[in-house]
Amino acid sequence: MSDLVAIAYDDLATAREVVGQLASLKTRDLDLDDCVIVERRDDGSVKLHQPTLTAFGAVSGAVSGGLIGLIFFMPLLGAALGAATGAASGALLETDDGINDDFMRRMGQELQPGKAAVFMLVRKAVPENVLPTLSGRGVLIQTSLNSEDEAMLAAALRSES
Questions:
Q1: What are the distances in angstroms from CA 106 to CA 45, 63, 103, 110, 136?
Q2: pTM of the model
Q3: Quick count: other Cβ atoms within 10 Å of Cβ 91?
Q4: H or E stretch including 103?
Q5: Strand order in 46-49's β-sheet?
Q6: What are the angstrom distances between the C-alpha of 149 and each of 106, 128, 131?
Q7: Is pLDDT larger for residue 66 or for residue 26?
Q8: On the chain, which terminus has fewer CB atoms closer than 10 Å, C or N?
Q9: What domains appear along the chain, each with residue ranges and CATH number?
């Protein structure tokens, strides 16, 4: 079962930066079912930005392909093949079975204009590796985590790395 985590940021650029950093963790420390950036535009409208699973698949494929390549003494070829395979599988798996779009739009209406939030369905996370990426950034706005994990995440968001 996945947990919902939604974190608000000062702007869209920061939200995108965090998602990019989380994508590099995905292979070993973070397993996401869904990840969406919700932007509240200056005119009050809400825009959903859905990062593609293709990019996440390419990163994980490159890492696993590189490891396989090391075993067979061809790491660059292995990484290239792994990235291509990961990207293809990510593209094939791309569906919108994750977080309800209407729910995210309603939550987006609560953001101040110009702000953004990252909504994630987290299947598995290694907190000691993921929390430093989130340190000192954003405010927790929604979660289905247990109270202990929620307190740990909120503390990490308040702390400076």
A1: 11, 37, 5, 7, 26
A2: 0.72
A3: 14
A4: helix 101-109
A5: 46-49, 30-40, 116-125, 3-9, 139-143
A6: 25, 12, 11
A7: 26
A8: N
A9: 1-50+100-161 (3.30.70), 53-95 (no CATH)
